[in-house]
Amino acid sequence: MTRPSSSKKRLQLRTMLAPLGHCVLALAVMFAGAAAHADIATAAPSTFNLNLLTGGTVSAVAIPTAATGTGNRLPDATLCSALNGAAGLGVSLANPCNPARIYGSVNVGAAPNSAAPQTFSASFTPAQLASAVTVLTAAGQTYGSRRFFVVAQFAASASPSGPPSATRFVTLQVNIIEPPPSGITSATASLIDVGLNTPTPVSVRYSIAGMDTPLAGQFCSALNGGYPASGVTSVNPCAPASNLGFASPAIGYTNALQTGETLVVPETIARQATQRAQTSGNSIFYFVRQFSSGKFAVVQLRLNANSANSPLAFTDIRLGFRDGGGLQNIGFFKRGQLLPAVSAMLRYQGAGLLRARWEIVGPGDTPPTALDLRAEASLTPLERAQQHRYRVLERVNIYLPASGQAVLSGPVPRLLPNEQYGQYLLLLRIETSDSMAGVPGGTAPFLLPVLRYYIGESSSPVARTKSLPETINLVAPHSGARLDKDAALTFQWLENENVSLYRLEIEANGKQAYAARIRPSAQSGINRYTTPPFIAAGLVDKVVRWRIVALAGDGQFVGESEWHEVTSVP
């Protein structure tokens, strides 16, 4: 048998191996065309802190596993306020964002697959962080704990245009560092019952962070949305067409951490609220005060025809020496002379126990400040502790029924000092008392009055000195003037020196209808003040009178005008 030649053997071997070579080549081509399996081992850092006022950038490094790549980074990263269940930071196989909490995206820049660590970043402006705060607040996050998540996506592809595969998600957490809250943070007041036939004082407490100044106030019959739990909103909460009228400027407000004001709900407002309630069936209405921080304080009020259920709240207090059928608000007496009896005319809303004390300020004593002349129930505990205490002549502890007015006898005349020359101030200090409504009673939306008397060599008013009260001269409307109910009322009076603040007082049928505090702004020696338009309408068919009381910079009484009685045109 003849053996094949070596050349034939090589040809046969090549023939046998050819198919196998084609297979190897095909496999090589196949593996060369397929994408490497991209995977990310870790990403760091994963948590960042950004200042709300300055903004900033978050930057992380995606580190691939050995012999793989990061995958193609997509340009847009997801923003969300919460993750799914137990999902955490770092690398995951699925987008961890809760679909209901996705609120946008941020550009992190596109990048191709890389076997080396890959850095990616996202920048946020203060405006973007402020928008995030709004979203996070709506999602229930609070100051000091607001944070959101940035989820970047990496995907490997069979070709640059092929579908994503082997996707990985890298999650970063961004904590928002906010400055301390500024402005009003809460407003508290129990649901106050408002009388229908008399002005009702309401004491409101505010919590303030930093500085905030009360601006305009109004009453309305309905809110947009519900009543805020904190009593504060960032937008005017009054519903359209629900305005009942405007409130007088804040009285008794100080820029303290805990402060407040005592406002008066006029009868005109109560009547309008009653008319709305007859249509809506809802006896609740609202007082809203705007602040310079852009926030609004909200207080709930409730109509109640039974004033006996309302806390004791004073609308006017007047002190004087009894002189025939009237009261004299200043006295001049000889040394050693027994002084006449003193009375206090009280007008009030509600009913309850009156706790008070008669105090005397003698020559050489520290004069009372505006804070000293505030009723305790209108102050915070801290403010009460800052009030001066003077010598107590007599204490008061009597029940005031729901009659609306009362006459309180002053201290026994023999207790009034009369031996030392100089000025004396008699104070009626109203203390806080419980009421049938279960809220503090004894509020007063004004500075408590002071009864002055002087001990000297003569009991004649001619003995007055320059330190005695000044007379404020009224210009218009004059006594007997007729007021237009459809027009705003403008009051004018002559400027006086040493006056830092004026108080306009308007009475209707013997009850306070409106009060306002006005800074001196005289033009040609005349001060002017125009009331809100609804005031005139509430004075129709009533006996109306007005006056001006002048105060110094420290809140001390400077002087007052006579009362001018006017007529409102029906």
What does this protein look like?
This protein is mostly beta strands. The protein has 5 helices and 38 strands. Strands 2, 4, 5, 6, 7, 9 and 10 form a 7-stranded mixed beta sheet that branches. Strands 29, 31, 33, 34, 36, 37 and 38 form a 7-stranded mixed beta sheet that branches. A hairpin with a 6-residue loop joins strand 9 and strand 10. The longest helix is centred in the N-terminal third of the chain and has 28 residues, at 6-33. The model is unreliable at 20-36, 159-164 and 460-468 (pLDDT under 50).
Give the DSSP E fraction (strand runs of 2 or more residues). Answer: 35-45%
Q: Outline, from the CA principal axes?
A: elongated
Q: How confident is the prediction overall: mean pLDDT?
A: 79
The radius of gyration is 39 Å
Q: What is the β-strand count?
A: 38
Helix content: 10-25%
Number of helices: 5
Strand count, sense and barrel status of the largest sheet are: 7 strands, mixed
Distance between the termini: 146 Å
Q: Report low-confidence residues grouped into runs of 5 or more.
A: 20-36, 159-164, 460-468
Pairing-aware structural class of the strands and helices? Answer: mainly beta
